[in-house]
Amino acid sequence: MGSTESSSAPPPHPEHHPLTQLWVRYRQYRARVVLAFVLSTCRKVMDVMPELLIGAAIDVVVRGSDSFVATLLGIADRRDQILALAVINAVVWVLESTFDYLAALTWRNLAQQVEHDLRLEAYGHVQGLDMAWHESRATGTTLAVVNDDVNQLERFLDTGVDKLWQLALNVVLVGAVFALSSWTLTLLAFAPIPVIIVGSLWFQRRLEPRYAVVRAAVARISGLVSANLGGMSTIKSFTAEERELERVREASEAYRLANAEAIRASAAFVPLIRMAILVGFTMTLLLGGWMALDGRLELGLYSVLVFMTQRLLWPLTQVGEVLDLYQRAMASVRRILALLDERPVTLPGQRSPASVSGRLELRDVSAGYADGPDVLHDVSMVVPAGEVHAVVGPTGAGKSTLLRLLLRFTDPRSGQVCLDGLDLRELTWEGLRGRIGYVSQDVFLFEGTVADNIAYGRPGACLEEVVRAAVQAEAAGFIEAMPHGYDTHVGERGVTLSGGQRQRLALARAILRDPAVLILDEATSAVDNETEAAIQRSLAEVSQGRTTVMVAHRLSTVRHADRIWVLADGRVVEAGTHDELVSRPGPYAELWAVQTGTQIGTMADAEVG
């Protein structure tokens, strides 16, 4: 993969030009870039030749045996001279077509490859960033960078670089013809070029901030639409369609206005450049004609210079289009490189034990989010290998934070979280998360079949293993009732399934992984009492010999746990078995009384989960 190869390159300085940074980052493509430039150069040389051949043909007609062709090729007869020019013309056109094909093929394949590698590098980099980073950033914003901004760069590499090179070559080659013919006409024909260049740079400076605004507006639209599509059920349930349409309309209008500002600046470019071209072309036509009439300039050469003036100046009208493409691409590249400059805070360790028994321990752990206050305060707890432990408590007690620590989605501010006595920070991701089966409250299913989603935890698992995991998760019944059984497509995010069905598929996915540690975050929150009882029977089986940590809303789900930890305000306020905790006054006993209906009291507002 290209991004892997590029990782060996020295890191580019962040203040360098975006194209310079790409040149450093993707040095494995430098030979192909050089080849593309060589092919483009050959194409442009052939492209300039027909004008010279036209002048040579006129020279043959006017001067006959004294023509340039006669002198160069030693052919006296005019018809033979014209025939020779026709043959040369045919060869030039064939070569130009060949180089045009090869150059286009090389540039486009190069653009596609860089686009492919950069998208993979950006996506791979995003996957390596912390969960806190993802949670603080709109998904649509990241999507706009990984997809749309990378596409903008591909469009520039596909055509923009080549057009810029063609323009530069055009000036050099045509300038050489003019210089060999007449310095006076050279100065007159080239006089508009400084005006065009200065004007182009001026337009470029005006366009750059405008396109930065355009790219930011694109990211906002992408983020808004992505979020709305993900929350469509909420939008519909609150009849908020018109409100959301208005929000999208406002974002789209901001994008339209930002683009209009950029278009207004870029659209004025070509008409102004036309006036500069008019001056150069008129001077060549007028003064060159007078020189030819006075005998100071050959007629064939005069015709060449008239054609060449058009060839020299008219392509410069594309500078605006190319600069437009360039500015869009550079705005996108800066956003891509800014994303790649993001660095994860949580880095994997180096140790990956051959076997894991599953003993978990928190030692005086304090933890929180970003710059906020601590959510957990000096928490210490031990989960012996093979035991089932539960964590309960009111909302905001720190249960989710504790699970994030076990999965190492975040690190403690102080203290240690250990697996088999090893600090989690010492373990590789495979050595830690590869040994954990996780079922979250908000189950995510991927587009694909039921079997694909269950086997996600262990790629390559056979259908028999998938079915066995589904049976253990009490999911086989509803799966087999589907039209295509395990080959049924679940739709994006599993929208075709109920909440309880999604949770059972997620549990089957975790079971199939056969982890040393099973972490369940409200694994029965979306199921009815009958399904809960079935899942409890399943958990009693799959947790045998496996360390299990569960967070539960329903205390009936955890009553058979080996130990229950009760959190309140980020601290462990009591711990014990279900029977021990209900036998004495305390938060757990009060919660149990509220949930079983044996007491109507002051704890009605103490949510758990």
TrEMBL record:
Location in or out of the cell: Cell inner membrane
Ranges for domain ABC transporter: 360-594
TM spans (from-to): 187-203, 272-293
GO molecular function: ABC-type transporter activity; ATP binding; ATP hydrolysis activity; ATPase-coupled lipid transmembrane transporter activity
Gene Ontology cellular component list: plasma membrane
Domain of life the protein comes from: Bacteria
Keyword ATP-binding carried by entry: yes
Membrane topology: Multi-pass membrane protein
Primary localization class, coarse: membrane
Matches recorded under InterPro entries: AAA+_ATPase, ABC1_TM_dom, ABC1_TM_sf, ABC_transporter-like_ATP-bd, ABC_transporter-like_CS, P-loop_NTPase, Type_1_exporter
Keywords, alphabetical: ATP-binding, Cell inner membrane, Cell membrane, Membrane, Nucleotide-binding, Transmembrane, Transmembrane helix, Transport
Pfam families according to UniProt: ABC_membrane, ABC_tran
Alphabetized PROSITE patterns for the sequence: ABC_TM1F, ABC_TRANSPORTER_1, ABC_TRANSPORTER_2
This protein's name: ABC transporter ATP-binding protein
Organism of provenance: Ornithinimicrobium avium
